[in-house]
Design goal:
The structure is a single chain. The protein has 13 helices and 3 strands. Helix 1 (14-30) packs antiparallel against helix 2 (33-50), helix 2 crosses helix 4 (78-97) and helix 10 (258-269) packs antiparallel against helix 11. A hairpin with a 5-residue loop joins strand 2 (174-179) and strand 3. The protein has helices at residues 14-30, 33-50, 59-67, 78-97, 124-133, 138-153, 157-161, 192-204, 235-248, 258-269, 274-281, 286-297, 304-311; strands spanning 168-170, 174-179, 185-189. The N and C termini lie far apart (62 Å). It is mainly α. The chain folds into 2 domains: 14-97, Orthogonal Bundle (DNA polymerase, domain 1), CATH 1.10.150.130; 124-297, Intergrase catalytic core (hpI Integrase, Chain A, Orthogonal Bundle).
Length: 313
């Protein structure tokens, strides 16, 4: 069950008020409703299973929950254990800041080591295959526009799916504004092919940027029984559709983030420097980009030939 962000109510216990405030802050900082929903589900299951308030929780309670069998019925992987601990620990750090509790029961629990899978970026030819696999329908037109936008701009999923009509600016050029990681606002040039794809998508849905309400999503979707104003395609819907298109294109299954990897890889392929790619991705430092690209591209070995020659192989 997804938690609703509710207004302050004195009848609600202090820690429950803090729970909703924590989720609101998390959404503001991350810009991702998907992250908020994941934290909400984890915390509701944790406290709901135990029937305890935060001040009654022990280290053993946290350890047992983090390593326990979840709704899937399977033993949790290291990444799942880490995600559970991260949600609980983050909530307790918030409670400490609010002076509701004085300690974090996660502090003494060792986090499992997680070996991240190597990132993979699609080639230009693979993206062409992906686009060709998207059906010529209203939904297909929208999803094709999203793929083109992601591949050309390198933006994160939430930064793109949250775009509204007012975020497209045609003054002194064509730009889009977005809310990035940590709530930071950005303004970038909108590549013309991305704008054209958006306009074709909206036309398929009987819409036009010039006539849309400023608060309306540029990624239309059908909402039965309620107004569609301001509502756009959800993370989950686009993720599911993308997986289906990837399979139809004969490509390995991947999440939406593969398109951010692809955008970075394609920029390097056409000769952009690491500094340029770092600015393009909104990375916090050049070191982050260097590590990102090294994992994506693999590290070059400039001297293996000399060593091989010395070995006579």
């Amino acid at each position: 069950m997804e938690a609703e962000l509710v207004p302050f109510d004195e009848s609600i216990p202090e820690w429950e008020q803090a729970f909703y405030a924590f989720l609101a802050e998390k959404e503001r900082r991350s810009g991702s409703r998907r992250t908020v929903d994941a934290y909400s589900r984890t915390l509701q299951r944790f406290f709901g299973t135990l029937g305890k308030t935060p001040d009654q929780i022990t280290e053993r309670n946290v350890f047992t929950f983090a390593h326990g069998i979840g709704p899937s019925g399977r033993k949790p992987a290291a990444i799942t254990i880490g995600a559970r601990l991260a949600a609980i620990s983050s909530f307790y750090r918030f409670l400490i800041r609010m002076k509701i509790v004085t300690s974090n029961p996660c502090d003494q629990i060792e986090r499992p080591r997680v070996s991240p899978s190597p990132p993979r970026g699609l080639t230009a030819e693979e993206i062409r295959r992906l686009l060709a696999a998207i059906p010529d329908t209203m939904t297909g037109a929208r999803d094709r526009a999203i793929v083109i936008f992601l591949a050309l701009t390198g933006r994160r999923r939430s930064e793109v799916l949250n775009l509204k009509a007012s975020d497209i600016i045609r003054a002194g050029g064509i730009f889009y504004t977005y809310r990035g990681k940590g709530g930071k606002k950005g303004k970038r040039e909108l590549p013309r092919p991305a704008l054209e794809a958006i306009e074709r998508s909206l036309a398929a849905w009987g819409k036009s940027l010039d006539e849309m309400d400023a608060r309306e999503s540029i990624w239309p979707t059908a909402h039965v029984g309620r107004s569609a104003r301001g509502l756009g395609v959800t993370d989950g819907t686009f993720y599911t559709n993308l997986r289906r298109y990837m399979k139809a294109a004969g490509l390995p299954p991947a999440g939406v983030h593969v398109l951010r990897h692809s955008a970075a890889k394609l920029r390097r392929d056409v000769g952009e420097s690491i500094e340029d790619v770092s600015r393009f991705l909104d990375h916090s430092s050049l070191a982050v980009t260097t590590t990102y690209l090294r994992r994506l591209e693999g590290q070059r070995d400039e001297h293996w030939g000399e060593v091989a020659a010395s070995l006579g192989v």
